[in-house]
Amino acid sequence: MPTFRPPQLLGAAVFFAIAIPLRAQDVAQQGALKEILAKETFIRPPAAIEKVVTAPWQQNVALSNQSPDHKHFLKLGSEGMPSVQQFGKPHYYLAGLQVDYKANRARTLTTRGAAVLEIIDGSTGQTRAIDTPKGATISSAKWSPDGSEIAYLANFDDATHVYVADVASGKSRKITKTPLLATLVTAVEWTNGGKSLVAVLIPDGRGAEPQHPAIETGPQVRMVGEAKNRTRTYREYSLLHDPHEKAQLEYYTTGQLVLLDAKTGVAKKIGAPSMFLSVDPSRDGAYFRVTTMQKPFSYLVQYQNFGTLEEIWDANGKPVAELTKRALRNGDKVAQSRF
User: Fold this and answer.
1) How confident is the model at residue 5, as a pLDDT?
2) Out of 153, 199, 238, 246, which residue is the most buried by the measure of CB atoms under 10 Å away?
3) Per-residue model confidence (pLDDT) at position 229
4) What is the mean pLDDT of residues 24-47?
């Protein structure tokens, strides 16, 4: 009886499949594909795929942003898929942080902003539009503590500003004179009983963006302290590459924490400019739980692994308590904490 030999049979099967001549239809299809590729331009996908991608998902409503009296909801309405112009807007990719450098904000605020802001009556389902500035997308809308106003970010092509809408009239007013630095902190917070807003602005006197030298000032240096290091591998383009990009990251993440008067827009500075990751004010605006990004930066990991310092600040920006201090995590190091 012959011996069964899978490798030889498999090899014969593969050879047989390759030896089958292409059908005329397949040849024509390959020719059409080559012709499309040769044009080097965007094309429309097949109708079935286009139908799925362009489905009106933006018409879905999630009743999640509820007013303090539990009677109304906020709806951020989109016009559908972002445009190629929005996605193609130039930006930096610095240690995992995508920065729309023209507008000093996170790129997600450019590509995912809403077109309309509406109030939904929870009992009737009726909607009422809020008057928002033309030429801006909307993000991070938040009710005031008493539900009479709504604060939101208006994202223009070259800047992001804070607006406050009156719920009764539906009219909005601009609060900030200086644009926000919305790269790491991408929202505002109400405090002081709804009289004030906490935000991070572009600091006064900020100089020009660091420019890359025409000639490199030195080699690329990478240092790993441990012989065995289970550090995650990141895409090369998402990491910092040289001292110039370190300077860029610091430039686009260093902002001024301020307390904004919700009526007049007068800004009170809180402490010195820092690389703020998050800010959580107390209800009366007397204290702030602040987390800042710390140096040194790294070429091996993204900014989420950089050192952080979490503190309690008073209304003048003076640290009154240290909550957590975490060192740079290039590999398997454990966070250092103190409570």
Assistant:
1) 46
2) 199
3) 58
4) 83
Q: How far apart are CA 21 and CA 105, in angstroms?
A: 56
Quote the CA–CA distance of 248 and 98 in Å, as a whole number. 12
Please write the tens of the pLDDT for every residue from 260-269: 999 999 999 9
Nearest residue to 96 (alpha-carbon basis) of 81, 114, 83, 108:
108
> In a 10 Å sphere around its CB, with 0-12 CB exposed, 13-18 middle and 19+ buried, how is residue 331 labelled?
middle
Long-range pairs for 14-20 at CB < 8 Å and ≥24 separation?
none
**Residue type at 70 in one-letter notation:** H
Residue 204 has which token pair? 């006064």
pLDDT attached to residue 227: 55
The rounded distance, in Å, linking the Cα atoms of 336 and 327 is 6
227 vs 283 pLDDT, higher one: 283
Q: Which residue has the tokens 């930096």?
A: 92
Q: Which residues neighbour 4 within 8 Å (Cβ) at sequence distance 6 or greater?
A: none
Q: Quick check: 160 and 181 in contact, CB under 8 A?
A: no
Looking at the predicted structure, is the pLDDT value of residue 104 above 70?
A: yes
**Beta carbons within 8 Å of 133's beta carbon, 6+ residues apart:** 154, 156, 163, 172, 174
Amino acid at 180: L
| 192: Cα separation from own chain's centroid | 27
Give tens-digit pLDDT for 42-93.
Answer: 888 888 988 888 877 767 777 788 999 999 999 988 777 777 788 889 999 9
Q: What is the DSSP letter of 139?
A: E
Tell me which residue of 54, 70, 315, 278 sits closest to 185, measured CA to CA. Answer: 278
- How many alpha carbons fall within 13 Å on the CB side of residue 182? 30
* Residues 306-327, mean pLDDT to the nearest whole number: 97
- pTM for the full predicted model: 0.81
User: What is the C-alpha separation between 316 and 186, in angstroms, rounded?
Assistant: 22
The DSSP output letter for 147 is S
Residue written as token pair 């140096």: 295
- Spatial distance between the Cα atoms of 254 and 210, rounded to a whole number of angstroms: 13
Tally Cβ neighbours within 10 Å of residue 197: 27
Please answer whether residues 150 and 74 qualify as being in contact, where contact means their C-beta atoms are separated by less than 8 angstroms: yes
Amino acid present at 300: L
